[in-house]
Amino acid sequence: MLALSCWFVVFWCFLILFLHSVSKQNKRIFYTILELSPLLDSSNMTPEDWAKIHYEKYDGFVILHGTDTMAYTASALSFMCENLGKTVVLTGSQVPIYELQNDGRANLLGALLFAGQFVIPEVCLYFYNKLYRGNRVTKVDAGSFNAFSSPNLPPLANAEVDITINWETVWRANTKKKFRVHTNMNRNVGLLRIFPGITAAAVKAFLQPPIEGIVLETYGSGNAPNNREDLLEELKKAAERKVVILNCTQCLRGSVKTVYATGQTLADVGVIPGGDMTPEAALTKLSYTLSKSKLSWEEKRQVNISVEADIKCLILFVSQELEAVRDALIPPLACAAAKLGDIDALRAIAEMGGNLSCGDYDGRTPLHIAASEGHLPLVEYLLTSGATVYARDRYGSTPLTDAIKFSAFLSVLPDDCFFNFSLPPTHNYMGWLHGSACLWISSSCCSGCQQFLNGSFGRAIYWSFPCCIVLRNGHSTEYKSYQLSKFNFKTLSLYSLGDS
């Protein structure tokens, strides 16, 4: 018992040192631990539990989860987290962390490392030294530390002696829309596995209302008996009732293709080929798609579009030597192009497979540079090309804070965002005349706006631009709200709202 306690002490001391140390990227990450209440076994997880995420407060997330249903949660979150711009990593362990021999410590530290040090704006799953795309994994082993596999997509990253990230495979958001969690998942979905001798009565019972969609797990490349008219008739009737039937293979690796007559027969009765999606991804995507009330029936049938088509993932196969040269040259070239406002040059870099979120020696990305220089068309191009607004340079600045600092522009925020400004309660106001301005954030519309200014309630934010401040009786009261998209900081004039 004493030896086990010593192991606990050593581990937690190491964890504390890890959480407060400076990484190779010269970053110190601050971690907050939040506990789900009540605690749940992963077998008891439901769609309602998938939606509990505190997105606005943090730059990255690690979710500790039981392994039994982790692939379902990772797949579901990948669809529910719309317009995701931050790193979300799920991890767990095959053996409890309090056991002397366990995989929990390594998995936890690896997940903390990826979530804190790298901007990989996806829902990921980290296990046994590998970082996977969340909607590509499935649990393949109940008795091994190497419990998960991504059969149809290579890992996003490998954490061995060196950390290798396959940036060409990492998804990048191509939208400026605000992050939101879609919580209204459709639960009238299910998995139906074809097996030799399955009865038409069993299929008919499974397809009865209120079922709205099923994942049909078939043989090989999507095959089922084509001499069973009773089965085909039940599937056809369900499809005519607008039940979405998605065909996925029972095999661990491979894709559904209508190569054989037994596969084409299913397509003829209205079954939709599911490509190479895992059953977990197919089920959760079906639940997500069917819950979209604004989509038409034909649009919902497009659920068979592959995960890669959804995220427009580009995979380039080049030699290690060319990758090394490219990775070394692209950061300074991309930042130089951003400095000049040269969109064509950045397009050429992107076409070569370059990462437009790469940082230079100071960690400054092309979006940092473009925001600082006020190149609005270039900023819009970078945002729609997947550049992240959450990357921090060595000084802790993001592209958003640089836009403020260098008096550039603020139109990258949604139109409905605003801040309430006031002058600090105690200050030598006359010292501000015809010089730098200092405004006090008294309130804002959302926590995202607070993070935009890299501040919080009660913190003064400075800009260097001409400012005229009219005082009345030596003091000032709170100012009205401003729509940021219409707010010109370069010609800002503030007037006291004191007694007239």
From TrEMBL:
Residues 1-24 form the signal peptide. ANK repeats lie at residues 362-394. Transmembrane segments: none annotated. GO terms for molecular function: asparaginase activity. This is asparaginase. Residues 35-169 form the L-asparaginase N-terminal domain. Its EC number is 3.5.1.1. It comes from Buteo japonicus. Keywords: ANK repeat, Hydrolase, Repeat, Signal. One of its GO terms (biological process) is aspartate family amino acid metabolic process. It comes from the Eukaryota. The active site is at T67. Substrate binds at S42, T67, D68. Residues 188-302 form the Asparaginase/glutaminase C-terminal domain.
